[in-house]
């Protein structure tokens, strides 16, 4: 029996064509669209019209990308006469990268959002834009330095280079691990420990990785065990003067548990917190300050080890 030929239904074929047209991806033109641009970057349906020579000047990776033929089926794509180059990052990351490259005034603001700093570091590292990567890392280092002298000038109450936001400390720690910026980690971890209750019993716990959480708990325990480094002056074995007064000071400082931040605070800030040591004689006050400083410096030197990190001299950023 001969096969019957299918008769095309014009209405059905038209409907299929409409469905195929609807299935095509929607293209969005970003706000970064230079009229004199000569190349278009596209990611996830978002396009950016920029300058090929400008990107090649800043990035060896972009220079290589532009010299390679596009994947099959994409090489002939053009928009406004410009070749379309596919990139495989989120539209937000590409936008933040281009903003940072094109708008230097934006980067020179006192505080910029963490997402911008994150993009500068991650995308700068990926596309070999080292000045952008290093600038982002420097913003983190200014808040979480690797020297005690610089650290004592910082505070979580005063952010000088990053716009504060919920969970910022742990976002910074995660980024430092991801992009291998170990020099900021000791100070960042220490700052995180100053509010352990918020971490363990707040909403942030779900956003913190197991590895970071373990480092925080372990570091907290180790610092507590080494409490005597900084506060051995409260009970010195070689001083028999003002013993009763020292005991009163110790009890007022303890108030149930040692406060982590006091391990690295300055003598001046400690005295401001407790209103001075008028109970002690001048000799004991001078010796107490001297031993406090010695203990504080010892704690700082050991700080990386509390969190399972190499020593200060062995850490190098972007080594991988």
From TrEMBL:
InterPro entries hit by this protein: BTB/POZ_dom, SKP1/BTB/POZ_sf
Annotated ranges, domain BTB: 37-103
Annotated PROSITE patterns: BTB
Pfam families associated with the record: BTB
Protein name: BTB domain-containing protein
């Amino acid at each position: 029996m001969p096969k019957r030929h299918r008769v095309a239904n014009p209405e059905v074929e038209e409907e299929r064509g409409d469905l195929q047209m609807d299935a095509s991806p929607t293209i969005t033109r970003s706000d970064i669209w230079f009229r004199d641009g000569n190349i278009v970057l596209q990611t996830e349906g978002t396009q950016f019209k920029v300058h090929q020579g400008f990107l090649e000047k800043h990035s060896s990776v972009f220079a290589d990308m532009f010299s390679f033929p596009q994947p099959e089926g994409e090489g002939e794509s053009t928009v406004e006469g410009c070749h379309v180059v596919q990139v495989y990052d989120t539209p937000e990351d590409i936008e933040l990268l281009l903003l940072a490259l094109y708008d230097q005034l934006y980067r020179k603001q006192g505080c910029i959002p963490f997402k911008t700093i994150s993009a500068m570091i991650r995308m700068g590292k990926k596309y070999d834009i080292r000045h952008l990567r290093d600038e982002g890392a420097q913003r983190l280092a200014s808040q979480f330095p690797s020297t005690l002298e610089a650290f004592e000038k910082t505070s979580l109450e005063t952010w000088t280079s990053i716009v504060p936001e919920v969970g910022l400390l742990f976002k910074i720690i995660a980024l430092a691990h991801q992009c291998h910026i170990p020099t900021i980690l000791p100070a960042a971890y220490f700052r995180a420990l100053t509010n352990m209750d918020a971490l363990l019993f707040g909403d942030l716990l779900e956003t913190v990785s197991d590895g970071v959480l373990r480092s925080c708990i372990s570091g907290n325990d180790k610092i507590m065990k080494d409490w005597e480094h900084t506060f051995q002056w409260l009970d010195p074995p070689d001083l028999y003067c003002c013993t009763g007064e020292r005991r009163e000071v110790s009890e007022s400082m303890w108030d149930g548990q040692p406060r982590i931040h006091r391990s690295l605070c300055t003598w001046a800030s400690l005295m401001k917190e407790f209103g001075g040591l008028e109970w002690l004689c001048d000799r004991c006050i001078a010796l107490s300050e001297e031993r406090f400083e010695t203990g504080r410096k010892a704690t700082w030197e050991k700080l990386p080890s509390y969190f399972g990190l190499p020593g200060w001299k062995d850490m190098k950023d972007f080594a991988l």
